[in-house]
Design brief:
155 residues, mainly alpha
Length: 155
Amino acid sequence: MFGDANIISALAKIDELDTRAEADERLVKARLEWSKCMKEKGLDYPDPNAVDGIIADKLAAIVGPEPAKAVGAGGTISPQAFDAAAATVALPSYDTVALAKLQTEEVATAQADLDCEEKHVVDIEDKVKAEYIKKFAQENVVLLTKAQAELARRK
């Protein structure tokens, strides 16, 4: 679309900003402290961003990969199509004991994650990201003003 160059440039710089903030030594150190905190609670995760993926992998190992969804236009499926698809699909069998154990682990992990995040990451992450955003805004006033004007013209 004509005139989107400033928007595209601003978005690319925002992505770079996030990458730089995530690599900031204060935030890296905070996440290492988070990992130590999790280990003290008997959980071994390299960083907070890894938790969901590791739990999902464990779930897939128990119940198998998520089946493909029969989705229609607009991301919806009619009740009739759902019923027809469900009637032809055999329910998978899986280890219900292992699933229950994983569910317990997931709850314990979530509680530990929240505690460790609050103790070691949240305040530092808020401070670091606020600093990066402020500096970014100061350095990119012209670009952000042009991108804002392009967005306003679209309305």
